[in-house]
Amino acid sequence: MKMKLFFLGSIAILLFANKAQAQTWQSKFVKLNKAGNLTYVPDAKGDIIPDFSRVGYHQGDKAIPQVKVVKELSSNGINDQQQIQGAINELAKMPLNKDGIRGAILLKKGTYEIPGTININASGIVLRGEGLSTKLVATGTGQRKLISVNGNGKPKEVPQTRTKITDAYVPVGTKFFKVANAAQFKVGDDIVVFRPGTTKWIEDLKMNQIEAREGTVQWNAEDYGLQFERKITAIKGNQIFIDNPVVMAMETQYGGGEIYKYTFDGRISEIGIENMLLESAYQSDTDENHGWDAVWLNRVENAWVSNVTSKYFGYSCVNLATYSKQITVISCTSLAPKSKIEGGRRYSFNNDGQLNLVRDCSADEGRHDYVTGAKVSGPNVFYNCKSTNAKADIGPHHRWAVGTLYDNIITDGDINVQDRGNWGTGHGWAGVTQVLWNCEARKITLQNPYASGNNYAIGIKAEKSEGRLKGRPDGMWEGLNGKGIIVPSLYVKQLADRIK
């Protein structure tokens, strides 16, 4: 009898295991091999879903440090901004240690009144609170940033270093290509991989034919040269290997590509904003004459914003501008923005930079909660983030963002990757190589642009939508409303494979 029960129990376990196995599936684009590592299946052109694992602080190779406190401040309600700014300026004069750090300023529990903007313009400075009990308030009126982290200048091309990429087609996901002359480069060089905008490309995208209305601007080729910051990892003859993948194909029919060395002397690094509540004063729910960005970063690399909560700002909790690179935004929350609910407002976590990571964040009452802007040169990642009471959509917003992973994003609103047509002043195609992985939304639109690549929706739970403009090519859908995707997070698995 015992043997029979054991046998029946074994069959039940086996049937359950087979059923569970039947409910799991893996993508045809990204598969697990026998060793349990990801393999990537190229399409007819050789394009693959790229590796997104080298984003965020030091490309995920270093943990965010616990920086030693060198100065403590307490609020007094009289000159809070001056004393915080004074401490930052004093710390900026101290030497950097071997890790590029000067130290942390601890803001003790209390309310700090900030009538203007706190500016961090030097490397190695951390501004830390004691959690929600440390509250900085943007008092008074005026649209402004409460905390601004900003270096100076912009990238400069090193003269006589530009050389042509000679491959006829460099596929998406590739980390190497041939150039006309590699002799002037060495391993470790910082380079720009330049993908020019051309008239033929604009014409093939039909972005010179946007249905006109008042204010519509057709796309101009000279405005769409894309600059991808990379580092050389190896050189073999005239073949160059780079640290991060190509996220938009280089095609001779559209001008091919070039590389050149660059410098960015004014960019700062090793900045942290940690553990605090940031609020804005306001007069009404639609008031717009008050704090606009809680934390804004530009001309900075290898920095972080962690455990920051914002309330009542008109635009963002964290705004990563064009020259922000390798920033990690983690465990931050955007609450109760105050503004009109219309364009140019409530972009809770905005990213216009590259190689940035926004993870484990949440937003409520925003419009575009996890969003990129125009000509954004990826890869970039939004991972494990939530949006509630959404007033508009998540996704690339306008004018061609390249190489973004939206991984485990949950929203009660929509996620859209589409031709936005004449919205704004001519938003047009929002982006390419946009990957939606295991996300949940009310509705999702996913369209492929007429040229230059694909967009992907894999393991999505949502109602499929045609989008604003009908008749556009459908994106690459797989496993819509299915369960049991065998790789629940592409970013986490890619990172795990890399750091083994």
UniProtKB/TrEMBL annotation:
Alphabetical list of SUPFAM superfamilies matching this protein: Pectin lyase-like (SSF51126)
Organism: Pedobacter xixiisoli
InterPro entries: Pectin_lyas_fold (IPR012334), Pectin_lyase_fold/virulence (IPR011050)
Source organism, top-level taxon: Bacteria
Keywords annotated in UniProt: Signal
Protein name: Right handed beta helix region
Signal peptide (UniProt feature, chain positions): 1-22
